[in-house]
């Protein structure tokens, strides 16, 4: 099967832990069924999501997400064929950046604030790889 990795950024229209609990719970169920894996970095000012899996399920999942009224201003950053998954252990790893992520985010910061809208495809791919390594070291995969 051809593997794809899609990375997009969006601006949340709703914030709060309960909204993301719901999103991540549904993502877990749906993505498990579709063999989609990935990570969702969420902050008050942006969502940065990595979806990986077969082209068909990644496309279907992305189209559903894109129609979700809980966010706006979606921009695709990357959509590439890849040889392996970065987040193979996670149906959807939720990452609310904490102080321990600061150094990681700083590596991808041009101005004073990390701004995913300014990431190039290459930088986004590098960020996804660094994030998967960081999360792999700091957390246990969800089951
Ligand atoms: C930022 C964001 C990320 C999301 N990520 C996923 C995801 O990875 N997988 C998924 O199935 N739904 C995701 N959703 C939710 C979908 O938009 C949609 O509400 C959900 O898939 C509907 O599932 P249901 O038909 O089982 O209720 C996301 C929503 C938002 C706002």
UniProtKB/TrEMBL annotation:
Record Gene3D superfamilies: 3.30.70.100
SMART domains to which the protein is assigned, alphabetical: BLUF
InterPro entries: Acylphosphatase-like_dom_sf (IPR036046), BLUF_domain (IPR007024)
Boundaries of every BLUF domain copy: 3-93
GO molecular function terms listed in the Swiss-Prot or TrEMBL record: blue light photoreceptor activity; FAD binding
Species for this entry: Psychromarinibacter sediminicola
Name recorded for this polypeptide: BLUF domain-containing protein
């Amino acid at each position: 099967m051809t593997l794809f990795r899609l990375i997009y950024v969006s601006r949340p229209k709703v914030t709060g832990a309960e909204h993301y609990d719901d999103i991540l719970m549904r993502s877990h169920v749906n993505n498990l069924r579709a063999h989609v894996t990935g990570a969702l970095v969420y902050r008050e000012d942006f969502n940065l999501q990595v979806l990986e899996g077969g082209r068909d399920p990644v496309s279907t999942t992305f189209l559903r997400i894109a129609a979700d009224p809980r966010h706006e201003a979606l921009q695709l950053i990357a959509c590439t064929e890849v040889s392996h998954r970065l987040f193979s252990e996670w149906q959807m790893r939720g990452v609310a950046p904490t102080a321990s992520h600061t150094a990681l985010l700083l590596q991808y910061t041009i101005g004073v604030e990390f701004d995913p809208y300014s990431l190039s495809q290459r930088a986004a791919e590098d960020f996804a790889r660094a994030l998967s390594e960081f999360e792999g070291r700091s957390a246990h995969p969800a089951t």
